[in-house]
User: Fold this.
Amino acid sequence: MEVRLLVTGCHGFCEQAPVMVIEPGNLFYCRLSPKDAFEVVSRSIKKGEVVERLLYLDAATGKRVRTMSEVPFYQAQDQQVLSQNRLVDSCSIEDYIAAGGYSAIVKVLKGIAPEDVIKEIKSSGLRGRGGGGFPTGRKWSECQEAPGDEKYVICNADEGDPGAYMDRGVLEGNPHLVLEGMMIGAWAVGARKGYIYVRHEYPVAVKHSRIAVEQARALGLLGNNILGSSFSFDVDIARGGGAFVCGESTALMASVEGKVGEPRAKDVHTVVDGLYHKPTTLNNVETWANVPAIILKGSSWFASKGTHGSKGTKILALTGRIKNTGLVEVPMGMPIRKVVFDIGGGPVNGNRIKAVQTGGPSGGCLPLDKFDLPVDFDVLYEAGSMVGSGGMVVMDEETCMVDVAKYFLTFLQDESCGKCLPCRTGIDRMLEMITDITEGRGRIEQLDLLEELGDTISQTSLCGLGKTAANPVLSTLRYFRPEYEAHINEKKCPAGRCKSLITYWIDPDKCNGCRVCLPGCAYKAITGKKKQVHVIDNQLCQKCGICRSECKFDAIRVF
Assistant:
């Protein structure tokens, strides 16, 4: 019996990783360790037996699930872009070709004119998956019509959102899929040169992208007269500049050119005046990865999924206070509630879900009563959030929404390039006011000022970072204003997170004097004898929360 072991890309279920799928049979093992290897080989591979303890345990039913297709996390998904990740070796062009790879570019070069390719992309309704949701076909059409013979295509893999790793999962797991999408785009717009701009912190994605490019060149799929046609195209890999702002199109292009990654005014769009002042088409990893399937299966197939204005599927990085975290791919239009509770499995530790933050640091926070909203570019924008690149962070009742706004403002302050005044100074002023509120110095009139300043920053900033920087504040003020008011009027943090507004104490009815909390307190703020109620000295306590996490009897409280 011949057995082949494939080291594949991400299967999506990060919370259960490392995972293994044994074919035929779709047998799904999870949370593996090196010590499990012998048993897997000796029992499952050689004898066809099932190692029960390695199967996924469904918390809802208490039963072990045998196959990948039966795992609830996967059942509610519609994996299209991610579907090949478990079928191919990331570094094998032969695997990709065996799975149908490069069939789309062959089909194009055999008889689909550039204008017809663009028409098909337009008909599909594909919109950019990098954040803005701009119609892809329209972008390609404008670049094709732009004057000049020298044009470029760029893959934006500078994924900088905290908690987001969709592009990383695709580029590490199936780089040839992205490369094929770029080739089709280059044929459509008339480009001979392309760049994959990869975030500096993604060394594996850089490595796999380089291997894919070298393999494609070796087989004549990149270079001059590809597959004997008149089409010539090649790709280089560019390392990111290490800044969040380099994900913005003009800043990215400046970085590729060797300049400081700062945005410029877009009075002339990059499809006309882009890289090296030449017409340039830029899409993110997921957008390019959708293109081959549209060409092979047709625009109507892609358009059959999703909503009226948001077609196809979307990869989400589902993280936060839920049971199941990882990469999920769902049809556009799926309600947030289904993503969080059916795929994500609901809350952990018995806490209630409170909010979800979508779209990364430039997105917004939506309360539980908005969870019936669909994953849709236009609907989420109207609600004060955005689909963005696909980050989805779930928060429970122990999350302070004012502190969340402060966290994202701090991130954006660090990442702002400082080129334009509204972003550079406006974020600083907003952060000062939010900090005042979390530390007990807030004034009620600051809430209206935050809204006014946020609107000004949004309307007057130079690039997308500044235009969306106020979203975390504006959305939390819109939906969680009572929390702001409690911080200001009552000098209290309802979630018990803002250190300046909380005090730790030990409930004498629950403390049994087990002394477990004492060694964990680095500040010696807890005293008490064995089997006697302990006491916290609030003059010494630094409110780090370690004692609370160590206590097994829920005796340490916050007020």
Notes: The first strand starts at residue 20 and ends at 22. The first helix runs from residue 37 to 45. The two ends are 65 Å apart (CA to CA).
